Structures are given as structure tokens and as C-alpha cells.
## 1
Amino acid sequence: MNNVKFDIVHSLSGIKAEDWNSLNNGHTVTSYEFLAALEETQNVGEQSGWLPSHLIATSNKRLVGAAPLYIKTNSYGEYIFDWAWADAYHRSGLDYYPKLVSAVPFTPTTGPRLLAADVNIKNALANAILSFTKNNQLSSFHCLYPETEDLSVWKKVGCLLRKSIQFHWTNQDYENFTHYLSSMKSAKRKKIKQERKRLVDNNVKFKMISGDQACEDEWEFFYNCYQHTYNVRGSNPYLNFNFFLELKNKLGKNMLLTIASQSGQRVAAALNILSNDTILGRYWGAKEYIPGLHFETCYYQTIEYAIEHGYKKFEGGAQGEHKLSRGLEGVETNSAHWLAHPQFSDAVGNFLDREGAAIGEYHENLTTRTPFKTL
């Protein structure tokens, strides 16, 4: 590794998109275009609490490794919750922020965090990240939703591993939605049929559009729905409209809009992201409440699309046990953590041991509540 140079860059603007993407294996949300769109539309930066501080590794001026990194001054938009850790630091008279995070901002989906083809480069990237954390006297480092195959790298450099639960749908070579429903228990199958029929009876129809084919008015309607979801909870959305327009321009073919209309009047919208063989369910909103509208817009329409177009998996986003009865099953996701303070690191390690056991029991319990027929 003597000929590899490591640098921190506070913007992707000085890196060629093709160089970054050559290390990314086709994952949409860690692509140059997605991460650069966040920066260019100022959804990340000092004002958001996400300061880009990406690590790059070069050899003979060629990019051989990278890691999306952000110095964080809060814990918003992460979906792996460490507020209690921050509070414990504060009550002890210590500063938890700033901290360092490897993640895709506001996007709780598993994917590459160590972008490199060579495992030796991955190991070197992990070591360089912890060195940066220590040298800049940051309280901690957190890798959120890394790929399972990289967990050994994080453990090797001294990180604590944490598990959480998401709900994902897996395509079992279904021929169509009816075939999919036939794999479910009678009561679950009947409920889904009733939910879908109620919407048909209420004259609710759906349109699915590739992001590059959707007009700006349709994107604007989606954003108004997305914004409304936050407003009814008394908060502001993380992402601005310009970000979604950038996605349309840069990654439109990887975006899938679902728009629901009732009697010709648009009432709801959802946005999914297409990434290799996986659909990532991300953003949604509705202008009015209609029973069953959320499940149809966000889940059933997407599952039907996944079956028709041969996608292997649909990730339903963070949390939501209600997804279980819709056919999204509980799966374990991961994160890795390193804390500079030895006593706090020990305390967090003990906590994660207990939490991990509870997560394991919860996951096992979820498998017994599957909506699918058992052999």
C-alpha cells in the first residue's frame, strides 16, 4: 500500500463521475450522480449538519478507492438511532458532536460504503477513516447500512457491530401479483384483495412513470405530496425540490414515480429508486386520507412492478411492522461504530450485546408471524 495516497475532499466536484462509479458496482444511491446532486442542491453542507468529507485513495493519480463520509453536527437523517449515546455524552460533560459518519444522507438502505475492488484497499480505507476520526478529535465514527461482506473489515479495525431490522420483499419467481398472493395465508390474501378492491370501487387509479419520462408538473405534484407528509407532522422535509429535479436530469431512468388519482384528481404519489436488481422504496405523500391508499401506492403497486420487470427485492425503508402483513419480511441490517472515549466504548459495547440479543429474538419472532404459507 506504499504507493496509495489518501485524501479528504469536501466536494465530489473535483472527481470524475466515471472514476467514482467504476468502484460503485451500479448502486444508485452511492453513485456519483446521487451524492453530487445532494451537494449541488445544498441538501448537504454545513447548514444541514452533513459536511461532506469524502475519503479518496489514489495510486499513480488513478482513483482506486473511496468512502462517502460526512462530519455530522446532529443525528438527523441517519435512521440508526444514537440520540441516547449523545445524551449520555452531554450529561457527562462531553461533546458527542461533531462525529464522522459513512452513509448516504437521508437514505436508510444497505450498500457499499468502502468503494474498492481490492480487499486490501478496503482495509486501508477503514484504517484511514479511523485515523481521520482520531486526528481531528471527533467523538466517534459510524458506518450505517454497510454491505454484509464488509463487516469483517470494520470489526478488524476495532468497530462495534450493531444490528437493526428492516422489512424487505423478496421475489420468489412470481409470475404475477395473483401468483404472489397465492403464496400467502388465506386471511392475509383476503385482506389485501379487499383493500385493493375498495380502491377500485372508489375509482382510484394508478400511473407508474419512469423519472425521465415524468414531466416537471408530475415531479412537482410528487414533491408537494412529499412535503405534505412532513408538514402534517409539524416538521420540514429534509430534501428540497431542486434535488429531485437533479435526480430527474442525472438519474431519471433509475427513478420510478407512482401517482394515484381519484376520479381524475391526483391524490397521492410515491418515489422509488431502481438500483441493480433492487427497488428502494423512499418517499411518499397524500393530499387526503383514503383507506388503503398508502399500502397500494407504496407497496402493492411496487411489488406488482417488481414482478413484471424481474426485480429480485424491494426494500420498504426504515421501520414499519405494518409492512409484515403486506409481504415484506423482517431482515437484519447492520452498522459499525467506533467511539474514542474508552469507557463510553465499553458501555456502548455492553449495550449492543444486550440490544443484539433482543434484536435476534425479535427477528425470530417476526419469522413466526410470516404472512406466507408454511410447508
## 2
Amino acid sequence: MRRIGPIMSLLLLAALPEAGQAAPRKAAAVPADQPAPQAVRDAYAEMPLAERLALQSDLIWSGDYNGGLDGDFGDRAIAAVKAFQRRNKGKDTGLLTPQERATLAAAVKDQQEQVGWKLVEDSTIPGVRLGIPGKLATLTARGKSGGRWHSSRGEVQIEVFRESIAGNTTFATLFERQKTGPKGRNVEYNVMRNDFFVLSGLQGLKKFYVRAQLKDNEVRGMTILYDQALEGIMQPVVVAMSSAFAPFGSDTAPVRRKVEYATAIAVSPAGHFIADRAATDDCQTIVIAGAGPAERVADEKSADLALLRVYGMEHSRTIALSNEPPRSADLTLVGISDPTIQEGGNAPSTASARIRGVEGATVLLEPAPAAGFSGAAALDAQGRFVGMVGVRATNGGSAAAARAAFVPAATIRKFLAAGNVTPQDGSASIDAAKASVARVICVRK
């Protein structure tokens, strides 16, 4: 097998979920005996999660970072910041000054604008989201099974595909088929896991990259082809595409249920609850189970938050909001699943989730929790209430095609302040979260 260079090794490694993302340049190295100072780590821990995710994304585009897009600023991410500082003849402190941050953002923005970077959804296969270089692949068409984007003369070609796993077709046989692929395909690197594979190499005179994922007996993937002469331009683009590709990220618009169950969180002794705005839209009546009828007294579309109030209710068990962002990407969600899932019950339960990355201003979680968890409390590893989850289930409530977004505590706090509600500050716990959540029932016409 032909030996691949360090750049492509990082790119392929980046595609694996456990490895994070990659950079097209030489990655920053962290000496084993020089861990990042605790003061620098603490500074990042205090930074809002959205800012950390945006910074990691920019460092991927700049070619300085080859770690995970998860908001976790450990040695590798801090070393990437130092690499950027050294490359721009600055002092490698590991913390960007406002001017350095602006320089990085401007350089990345210019790079993205040059290729016309944009996030799109495949109209052929509902649920597929991907990033494409719109100025390089200007034309759209229908491929064999999914959408296709390409340049006028075929210098850049991007195609989404899907196949069912049935009969004699297994994930392994599909992997082998892709390795032999179209005539002239020469695989330089390949790796497969239980539900994921990636291939790279040459196909005729072009570079190719294939990424595919298995879920519920269906494989969805994308193939990228580009002229070797465009390698310098396309390498960072392919890395960004690998990071942005969400084969099962969303689906067709959900069917609006006449009776919808979600979760609400008590935030004041006067009967105020926060909930997911979409789950409480167009309700003829809203009921907080165990408390009574509720009124939606405020909502914020940009944050997908709703403020509910049960009048006459006192001494509700409220949850304390953290004043700090989550310190890691791993979260515990506390909510009340749909009664159809728990045989009519209404007991609170927990689910594990991880911050997957950022899409625009939205922080995404995976996996999406069960139906009914929209509005659930999100706690970090220290047991602090750091935010709320909003779930967009599709196919009449199928969790298999759901999309989950994280609303940070800072956003919730600002929303409550606008509604003249002062939440409790301090630490929380799983038990406190379970005591504060309640089922919200929306009945529509």
C-alpha cells in the first residue's frame, strides 16, 4: 500500500468520532513534559461554550488544530492556540488577545468566503446535512441515490449516497465494494469500525475521500472528488466537510402532534417553569403534570425557550442555575420521557449525551434523547445545571431521526431576567434536577 503523508493521516484520523477533527497543516505538538498551565485551563473553563466551539472550529480551518470539536480545551487545543500565535509572530501564551482572536476570525472568514463555504441539507435524502464549497461546486443535480454538487467541468464533485443493509449486503461487504469502487480507484488509506468507515486515495487523476456511517440498517455517506491541482485549496475544505457532515442529523419536518409531551424545569417558587418553545407552540391548553394548568407568559424564538407559569403554586422545588459553563463535553440529561415509552408512567430519568459541535449559533448534542425529553435539564460532570436540551423529533416522534440542541444556562438566565424572574444560584445535583422537572402536556386543536 502506498505510504500516505501526515496531512492525510490526520484528515482520516479526524473523521473517526473518537479522534475528533483534523487540520490540513502540520498539527501542533504538545510535549509530554509541558502540560498547559492550570491558569490557562481555568481561563478556558470560564469561557462560554459557544466561544470555545467557535475557536476550535476556526483553529481547524486555520490548520493549527487536529483535536475534537467539543469545546474541551486541554493540552492539544491550547497547543493549537500557541501554534497560531507563533505563526503570527506573537507570544505563545495559549490565550488569544482580542486582537489575535480577531485576526484568526478574519483569516478564517476570508478563507471560507473564498470557497463559498455553506451548510446545506440534501433535498434528495431527508436528514442529511453537510457543508460544501459553494463557489467551487456551483451546480446541483440528483446523483444515483442522493444529492450531487459539482463544478461546471467536474474539477470538484461531491455526492451523497445511501444503501440498505439487507440480505447478503453487510456493512463489511459495502466497505469492500467501496474499496474496489469505480474503475481506477487506488485506495491509499482505509479504516472501518462497527458503524463507520473512511477511505482515501486516488481515483484516476483525482483525489477522493469517502466517509460513511451505519444506522438502523441504512448506510449514508458522501464521496468527494477533486483535481490534484486543487489539493492546496481543498485539503482544509475536506477537513471542514468531514467535521460538518451529519448523515442522520435531521429529517423532514415533524408532524405536529395533537397531544405533545415534553419536560419543564421549575425555576422559581412562584410557579415559573422553563420549557422548550416549539413543544409549547399553538397549544389550546398547557398542563404541568402534578401542578395544574399553566400559561405561557413569555417566549424567545432565537433561544427556543418558553416561560410557563402555574398560578397559585408555591414552594415548587426549583433548580439552581450554574454561573459557569460546562467544563467538558459530557452531559447528563434529566427529563421525563413520553408516557408511551414508560407504559403511562411519569417518572423522571436520565440519559447521557455529548456535545457534538456547533452549527451556526446552535450547539448540537448526540445522541438525541428519547421523546419527551425536550426541555430536559442538562448537568455537567460536576452535577451543575448548565443548560437545557431542545429535541426536534421527526416521523411522528421517532428518536432515530431526532436532533438535539443545547441551550446554555447563561442564555436561560438572560431570558428569565427579561421576564423578571430571578433563578436560584449555586450547585445542583441529579436528585435536585429530578425533583425540579415535571411533565408538560400541550393539547392542540
## 3
Amino acid sequence: MIRFAPLLATAGMCAVTGLTPARAATTEPVSEQAADFTEHAFQFSDGTTLPDIHIHYVTLGTPQRDAHGEISNAVLLMHGTTGTGKAFLAPAMRRELFAAGEPLDASRYFIVIPDGLGRGGSSKPSDGMHARFPHYGYGDVVEANHRLLVEGLHINHLRLVLGTSMGGMQTWMWGERYPEMADALMPIASQPIAMAGRNWLWRQMIVGAIRNDPGWQGGDYSAQPSQWTRVMPIFTIITSNPARMQTDAPDRDAATQMYDTLVADAQKSDANDVLYWFESSWDYNPSPQLSHIRARLFAVNFADDLINAADLGVMQREMPAVPNGRFVEIPETARSYGHQTLAHPDVWKPYLVQLLSDTTRSY
């Protein structure tokens, strides 16, 4: 058990990646496709069944098959609470992860990036059901992604499951639910414990603001409620590095403008969708079943992340239960962005390289 791993220097990357690649990188254009998967009669964990749910997803690269005809180079990426799969299609992600020679070179891997249930192009309350949409939990999001892979794309094995923030939490759950399905797991910016303390408190500020907004009307509003959006800047406060925020808003006028901008941005989201985003963590608590995880797991957290506070000692306490697990808490540096360091793969990709090298197989 390695409980702390030093940050790998960029100059040392060549030594870590000096393995025979699954397939040589090419300069040919990488296939990128968007599609929707429909699952019929999907039963939610609250007992509700919908006739159909839709999961929107994007794939990068081309499936490779082993001697048995099974897809052998699949990777699943799962995004955070307020995001969609587009988070992994940002320029920094493409450059640092998917470009030729990078850890998830899209000429070598078949990368599946879904919009989690309740978000983006996938089925969600704002599609028409409003607050009558089933109150899904993280387990439902994980199950819907599993159906997409197995039933929709006929993928029975994954080279890697990687998730950020909420996606990181769902990566822990994935390892417990499907212990034989993935070679490697990388939860980023998450901890394997139930929501409590500060992490639950700030979420309840948002949930309570929506439910008590006069315009919410039990979720059956004809015009979007707006009072709740004045609380939404708490999300930026809790996910950002204080030094970065001070630089971005160095005086009162700039800070006031930042607040107004954050409120205006929140008004672009549907209130019911947001409510469900933050309530859907109700079933998250992987701690009791961590010993069920069989894949090699490398958890990455950031010391200046207020959501997953390092000073709670969670990782030191919980990780010994993971048979093939290790973790790193990356210290705050000039390259830190708090919880949002997850959007800067140049900081954490050395650990991804290390994990993939530790689980190399012949394809």
C-alpha cells in the first residue's frame, strides 16, 4: 500500500511511458462521434420505472478487438456534478490526454464520454417531467452508464475508468459494483465516504434555496425561479483556490462583478435539474464495501480542495481497505486551482501514466 506518491516531474514522463504502446500513434484524424443510447423500462433505485431513458455520449477513437472479438481498448470517463461530457472535450483535455503520444492517445484507445443521467443531452427533469422525474441517485447514474457500455456499445471490459469530482465518486462505486470489469480505476477529486460536514452543508444551501424559492412552485414553474441563484456562488467559493479568487477579484468592485456574473450564469440552468444534481448524492457511501474493489486504483486529490479536505485524514483512514489501491494528495503550488485543479490535466496526468503502466496488458 502506497499512501502517498510524490508528484512526478514532467521530465520523468519518458521513463514512465517507455513501454511498448498498444498501437503506434498515427497522424490520421481520430474518429469522434456523438450519439444517444435508449434504455427501455429503466428501473430507478427509488422503485420508479420509466419507459425510456436516453444517455447522450461521445466516443473518441476506434474499438480494437481481441482474439475473441471483444473490444479490448475501451476507456470510460465520467464528469462532475455541474458538468457534462463536454468537460473532457475542452482544449486542455484534448491536448494533455488524447493527443498523439499522450496517456489516452485516441489513436490507441476507444474513449467513451457520457453525459451522466440528469445532465446535458441525457434524460433529465427539464425534459418535461420536472419534479416528477425519478429522484435518481449516483447508483442510477452508474447503472445507466453500465447499460450504455454493455448493451449499447457491447463493451464488456474496460482498460480504465476515470472520473472527476462526482465522476470520481462514481468511479469508487463502479469498482465495487463491477469488480472484474476494469483493469484500472482513477477517481480524481473525491473521497470514498458519505456526504457529511461541510461537504453536505454547502450542498444543502443550494437545495434549500431552490425548494424555498417562491418561484419554484413545487417544481411546476412556468418561468424559471431566480431567487435561488443568489446562493449559487457558494459553489465557486467551495471549488476554487482562494489565491486564484483573490487574483481574479483583487478589490471590492471586481469581487462584486464576479458575484453578479456567477448569479447570471446560474440563471442559465434549470432549477429542477440543479436541485436533482445536488440531491443525487443521497446514496453515496462506498466506504463499507471498499474491500470489494479488485482493479488497481490510484486516487488523486488536491491539498487545497475544500470539498475533499485533506485535513480530515479520509484517504489515510480508508485506503488500507482497498486491496490494490494507493493515493496521492498533491500539495498546493502555483499550479493549483483548488477542486478545479481537476480541469488541469497537466497537473495530475503523471499519475495516470503511472497507473496505466502498472496495468499494461497486451492488446
## 4
Amino acid sequence: MRAIYLEQNPDKSTAASLKDLDDSALPTFDAKGVTVDVEFSTINYKDGLAISGKSPVVRKWPMVPGIDFVGTVQASDDANWRAGDQVILNGWGVGESHWGGLAQKARVNGDWLVRLPETLTAFDAMAIGTAGYTAMLCVLALEQRGVQPGDGEVLVTGASGGVGSFAVSLLSSLGYRVVASTGKAGESAYLQSLGAAEVIDRNTLSAAGKPLQKERWAGVVDSVGSHTLANACAATRYGGTVAACGLAQGMDLPLTVAPFILRGVALIGVDSVMAPAASRVQAWARLAKNLDRGSIANIATRIGLAEAIEAAPKILSGSVRGRLVVDVNA
């Protein structure tokens, strides 16, 4: 099998290469091991960090990166899966502490897999990938807190990225008036094509602001963190909900308790890596039902496995729009 292979140099830097590996190199399991012929994977921000070595994402060496994949079960020791089943994997430490999806084969714990919805193709699934799945978890968090389309505007930060792009498309298709925040002025037409009613400059949110601001947002999907998330909370309307799932601007959160104790704002953390199976199945079912298929063509770009290494720094620099889908057999 061909795979992106990460090794650690003596100076702790990362060496990434495209290698031919024997199937016997795949991880083994005492029980529930499932071998998958991978069709597509993706390059996410975390994959960019792993491949470039810019952050200590990799926990074990050597490593095959790729935090998600879609493919067909080749062999299974798990009674829930049999040869021929089409499956999706997102998260669970794959690509960090366990070999991931940027390879032609993967062997994982059967508990980590979700069945590919019948109405989605394998390419669709990875065009959506962890980014779209995370965006759906954020939308579900808003819905579960009672945020309805008639309640007012919903802000999506980091809107031209993977999570943001899918959040804009999903919320718009569900009838919400979406305001998209981006630092890329040239992406306004793209975001409007996904359903954004208004596009604002991220600079209006990215600097330190007042602890309590004019009420505007009924809900927020934030993948940025830091001052952006703080300002979003400060301008959220009474009883509104903010779903936070990323830290593109930073891990810090310089805010006060004012939005929470004076306006009853809820800040919900959304984790896609270790989310329970029921949440995953619900998210993928809703994606299959609610996502505008036209958005996939706008959001996703296909590349080959050999191009994945060069794509990593582009993801980190923010120069990639939407999603990069990796055809591991190309």
C-alpha cells in the first residue's frame, strides 16, 4: 500500500514522505479490528500540523497521518462489520496516536466506524469530512438549545475554512439568516454562493472589545477562538447560544462573565474527536438529509496522495478555501 509516512528526526523535526508499505505494517488489534480499503481521505488543519511538524500532534512514531477517511471493509473481526460495508471514520486519535487515512489501507477499531449513508458517495463523505461533520455537530448544538431561524442572525466565524463553509451552507439551507466572518475579502462571492446573507471582515471581531456589546446574534458557530469568540459572546442576544469548536486565532479566551450572567448566553464546547457513536450517526444522517449537494462542488477540491505533503503548509497558512479531498489511489 502507498501511504504518507511520518518519521521523527533526531532533532525532533518531522520527515514526511510517500512510501510503499507492506500491509503487515498496519496496526493490530486483539479484538474488533477492521481493515478498510481507503478510497478518500482529506487534509485538515490538524493533518497540516502533523505533516509539517509545526505542532506536537503526533503522539507515536512512525505515523500515517489523516484524521478521517472513507472506504470499504476488506476484513473484520467485529461482528458489526463485514466485507463490502462502506464506512466513514472521523477522529478517535487516528492520525495522531493511531495510523490514519492518508494511505490506501487502514486498520482501526470497529467501534470507531460509522456506516456511509446511502445517499452520499464516498467522495461526498470526504468532501464533508471532519470539517462538515463538526459543523453539523455545532448546528445540532444550536438546535438543541432552541435556536430557531426566526430568532435572528447566526454568525459563522472562519467562514471560508472547512468548518465555516459547511456551517454557512447548512444553516442557510435550514432557513437561518447567516452572517459570515472572513479575513479574505475576495471570498465574499463564494460565501454568498453557499447562502451567506452578509459577509463581514474578521477584523471587526478579532481585536479586544467591550465585555458586553449591542445584542445581535441569536447563535454563533465559532472555529476561531480568542478575541473573536469573546466578541461573539459579548454580542449574542439574550438566551442565545454560541457553539465553539476551534482555535484558529488562539486558545485564549479573553472575556468576562457578563454575557452569561446578564443575558443567559450559553457557550457550548463542540468536540468531534471523541464524540459518542449516537452523536456521530445523528450528525451524518442530518448531513445526508440537509446538506445542499451543490455546496460540495463549491467547497471541495480533489488532489492525489502525492500532493498531500505539499498541501500541508497551505492549510496552515490559510490559503486553502474549503476542503481538500485526497484520492489515495491517484
